[in-house]
Structures are given as C-alpha cells and as structure tokens.
Amino acid sequence: MNKTYNLNPDIFEMALGLHPTSVEENYQTELDSIFNVFDAKKYIAI
Fold first, then answer.
1. In percent, how much of the chain has pLDDT > 90?
2. CA dihedral in degrees (43, 30, 32, 5; nearest 10)?
3. Theoretical Cys-Cys bridge with 45: which of 4, 15, 31, 40, CB 3.0 to 4.6 Å?
4. Which helix (H) or strand (E) element contains residue 7?
5. Element (H, E) at 30
6. What is the value of pTM for the model shown?
C-alpha cells in the first residue's frame, strides 16, 4: 500500500483498519499498533 501511495500521492489515498475476522484476544494491542501507524502517515479513513 505504501509503495503504491508513494508512486503518486496526488492520485492515491490510504485507509487503515483491523478486519473483523482478525479480532482476537489481543485486539487492544492491534489497535494500539494501528493508531501508532495512523499518527505517522496520512490516512483518509480508518
């Protein structure tokens, strides 16, 4: 995703999320990781 975005950021946008089938007991850790990435780059949706 990042490679595609970096090819032409004027055309491509990025979204970020946790797929419902990936939610397990460690979901809070997964969400923390997602929000750390979200703060580091430009995303248009979660």
1. 13
2. -20
3. 15
4. helix 2-7
5. helix 27-40
6. 0.56
| 8 A C-beta contact, residue 32 and residue 39 | no
Structure letter (DSSP) for residue 27 = H
Q: Nearest-CA neighbor of 30 among 20, 40, 43, 15?
A: 20
- Cβ burial 15-45 (10 Å sphere, 16+ → b, else e): eeeeeeeeeeeeeeeeeeeeeeeeeeeebee
Q: What is the pLDDT of residue 39?
A: 78
Tokens of 10: 């004027």
